[in-house]
Amino acid sequence: MDMATLRDMFVEELKDLYNAEHQLLKALPKMAKAATSTELKRAFQSHLKETEMQVDRLEQVFESLDESPKGKKCKAMEGLVEEGAEWMEEDADPDVMDAGLIAAAQRVEHYEMAGYGCVRTYAQLLGETKAASLLQKTLDEEGAADKKLTKLAEQINVEAMEEDEDEEDAPAKRSNGKAKSKRRVAAR
Q: Are the C-beta atoms of 48 and 32 separated by less than 8 Å?
């Protein structure tokens, strides 16, 4: 595609997000299935419904621009989804698995927030007020999803860390009480 104008880039970035959302529609049910925390499962299922609405909003934007949403593969989302899929194949403690799923999901949310923030700004600059409004709504939802994941991480990461401590207590007792250094799951 010829990128002669900001509008050209705007449309190309929208296509990228459209494809990214479709990839996420396939990944979220798998993440929900892999999650062991009931709250995390619900968060993924809820975000799946939101993602469906976000795809509808993107289709409205494309319609208002008289453009097709097809024709672009989002390589960044493909990589993020692949990393999440690799994580789900790990033989991890349930709490550690959930902590890893949250980390993978937050990477996705941050990518989406960056993308939607850019296209919303392009829409504003181009005078596409309806598109800007629809994109802002999605941007707000992505930010709220990230905050929800952070709140879940505050609980789940602590539970994952407690699993580490429980596992370390047994070897420490066997080795005359010498404690090993603790591996911590990063809080997001």
A: yes
Q: What is the pTM of this model?
A: 0.84
Tell me the per-residue pLDDT of 36-89, one tens digit each, with 9 for 90 and over.
999 999 999 999 999 999 999 999 999 999 999 998 999 999 999 999 999 999
Q: Which helix (H) or strand (E) holds 133?
A: helix 129-174
CA distance to 105, 146, 174, per residue, from 29 (Å): 12, 18, 42
Q: What is the reported pLDDT for 170?
A: 52
Nearest-angstrom CA–CA distance, 105 and 92: 17
Range of the domain at 130: 6-152
- Assess if residue 162 is contained within a domain: no
Q: Kindly state whether residue 172 falls inside one of the protein's structural domains.
A: no
At CB < 8 A and 24+ separation, what contacts does 135-142 make?
A: 135/57, 135/61, 137/57, 138/54, 138/57, 138/58, 139/113, 141/50, 141/54, 142/109, 142/112, 142/113, 142/116
Number of folded domains in the chain?
A: 1
Q: Give every residue of the chain whose pLDDT is below 70, as ranges.
A: 1, 163-188
CATH of the domain at 55: 1.20.1260.10
